[in-house]
C-alpha cells in the first residue's frame, strides 16, 4: 500500500517507517521540520513539510499525492506529562488533527485510516481486577481537567469510525517504552536516584515500541473497519514495578519511594502512577491481527534498552 504517515519522525514513527517499508509499503511521511524531512528523505522516504493542524496547507502539501491509507501518529507530549496542560497539544491533535487528516485521506483517495489512541481512554481510575476488553465503554465523561483528554480521545475514535468511505481503525496503545527518548530519560533519572517509586502504586499496561509498530503494520493490513484494538503486552504491572524494572535496566540503585501526597503536586503524573489501576486484554489484537508481542513483559523488553545509543 501507499501510506501517508503523520508522525513519521516521532518515537513510534521512527520504528514504524522501516517496518512499513520492509512489509512492502511505500511511505509518504509528514513533518513540520525541513531538517527532519531531509534525514528521512536521505533514507529513501518521500516527505512533506507541513503542520497537520493547518488544514489548507495539509491539503496543498498532498495535492499531487495518491495513497491507499493514512496513519495518524502525531502527538505532542514532548517529555514527561506532569500537568494536564502538557497534554493539551496532543488533545488538539486528536480532535482537529484527526479531522484534518481524515480530510487529507479523502483528498488522496485513501480508503484506510489508522489512528493512534491511548489505553487511558478507558479512564484514569481503579478498574478493578478484571482485564478490560475493547467492548468496555471508552472515553466516558472525565472529571474536571480530565474531561479535555477524554473528549479528545472520544472525538479521535468517533471521527475515525464515522468517516464516509473510509475503513477506520483505532489502536489503543499502552504505555510506550523501549530504545526511545522518554525511557532513556527515566533511566537517567533512576541512575541519579531521581525516579520516584510511587506508594501506593497504580497498575499500568506497557508496550514495547517495536511491538507497537508491528501491531500498527498488522492493523493497516488486517484490521477490521470500525474496530478498536488494545495494543498492550501480556503483563499489566504495578507502576512501582515498572519504575523498579527501569532502574534495574539502568543498573541503578533501588529508587526512592515518594509518598502519594508529594506526587499530588503533579496531578497528571499522579493519575498515571497512582490513581489509575488498569489491566487490558490484548486477545482481540492477537486473534484478528495475527499479532503477538515479541516482549510479553517490560522485564524482557527493558533488558534490551541501554541508556545511551542503540
Ligand atoms: N502511548 C504512549 O505511552 C505514548 C504516546 C505518545 C508519546 N509517548 C511518549 O511521549 C514522548 C514524547 O512524545 P511526543 O508526543 O512528543 O511524540 P514524538 O515521539 O516526539 O513524535 C511526535 C510526532 O508527531 C509529529 N507532530 C506533532 N505535532 C505535529 C503537527 N502539528 N504537524 C505535523 N506533525 C506533528 C512530530 O513531527 P515533527 O515534530 O517532525 O513535525 C513527530 O513525528 C515519546 O518519547 C513517547 O515515548 C507515549
Query: What is the CATH superfamily label of one domain?
Result: NAD(P)-binding Rossmann-like Domain
Low-confidence stretches: none
Number of strands: 13
**Termini separation:** 29 Å
Top-tier CATH class of one domain: Alpha Beta
The major β-sheet equals: 7 strands, parallel
In round numbers, the mean pLDDT is: 95
- Lateral strand order in the biggest sheet: 3-2-1-4-5-6-11
Oligomer: single chain
CATH structural architecture of one domain? 3-Layer(aba) Sandwich
Number of helices: 12
Short description:
By secondary structure, the chain is of the alpha/beta class.
Structure report:
By secondary structure, the protein is of the alpha/beta class. It has a domain at 2-176 and 208-232 and 280-294: 3-Layer(aba) Sandwich (Rossmann fold), CATH 3.40.50.720. Helix content is 41%, strand content 17%. It has a seven-stranded parallel β-sheet with strand order 3-2-1-4-5-6-11, with helices on both faces. Helix 1 packs across helix 7, helix 4 (88-108) runs parallel beside helix 5 (146-162) and helix 6 crosses helix 8. The longest helix has 21 residues, at 88-108. The two termini are 29 Å apart. 49% of the residues are buried. The mean pLDDT is 95. Residues 6-11, 13, 30-33, 36, 51-53, 74-78, 93, 118, 173, 175-176, 180-182 line the site of NADP nicotinamide-adenine-dinucleotide phosphate.
Amino acid at each position: 500500500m501507499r501510506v501517508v504517515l503523520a508522525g513519521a519522525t516521532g518515537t513510534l514513527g521512527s520504528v514504524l517507517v522501516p517496518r512499513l517499508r520492509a512489509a512492502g509499503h511505500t511511505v509518504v511521511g509528514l513533518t513540520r521540520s525541513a531538517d527532519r524531512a531531509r534525514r528521512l528523505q536521505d533514507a529513501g522516504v518521500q516527505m512533506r513539510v507541513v503542520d497537520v493542524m493547518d488544514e489548507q496547507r495539509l491539503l496543498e502539501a498532498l495535492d499531487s499525492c495518491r495513497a491507499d491509507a493514512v496513519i495518524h501518529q502525531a502527538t505532542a507530549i514532548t517529555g514527561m506529562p506532569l500537568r494536564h496542560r502538557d497534554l493539551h497539544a496532543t488533545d488538539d491533535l486528536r480532535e482537529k488533527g484527526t479531522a484534518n487528516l481524515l480530510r487529507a485521506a479523502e483528498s488522496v483517495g485513501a480508503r484506510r485510516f489508522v489512528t493512534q489512541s491511548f489505553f487511558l481512554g478507558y479512564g484514569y481510575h481503579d478498574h478493578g481486577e478484571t482485564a478490560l476488553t475493547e467492548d468496555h465503554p471508552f472515553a466516558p465523561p472525565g472529571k474536571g481537567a480530565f474531561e479535555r483528554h477524554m473528549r479528545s480521545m472520544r472525538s479521535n475514535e468517533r471521527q475515525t469510525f464515522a468517516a464516509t468511505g473510509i475503513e477506520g481503525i483505532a489502536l489503543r496503545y499502552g504505555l510506550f517504552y523501549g530504545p526511545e527518548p522518554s525511557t532513556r530519560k527515566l533511566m537517567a533519572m533512576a541512575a541519579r536516584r531521581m525516579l520516584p517509586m510511587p506508594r501506593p502504586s497504580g497498575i499500568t499496561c506497557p508496550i514495547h515500541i517495536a511491538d507497537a509498530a508491528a501491531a500498527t503494520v498488522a492493523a493497516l493490513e488486517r484490521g477490521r473497519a470500525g474496530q478498536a484494538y488494545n495494543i498492550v503486552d501480556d503483563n499489566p504491572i504495578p507502576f512501582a514495578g515498572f519504575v523498579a524494572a527501569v532502574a534495574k535496566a539502568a543498573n541503578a540503585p533501588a529508587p526512592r519511594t515518594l509518598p502519594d501526597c508529594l506526587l499530588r503536586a503533579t496531578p497528571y503524573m499522579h493519575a498515571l502512577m497512582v490513581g489509575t489501576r488498569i489491566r487490558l486484554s490484548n486477545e482481540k489484537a492477537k486473534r484478528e491481527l495475527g499479532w503477538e508481542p515479541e516482549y510479553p513483559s517490560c522485564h524482557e523488553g527493558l533488558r534490551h534498552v541501554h541508556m545511551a545509543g542503540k
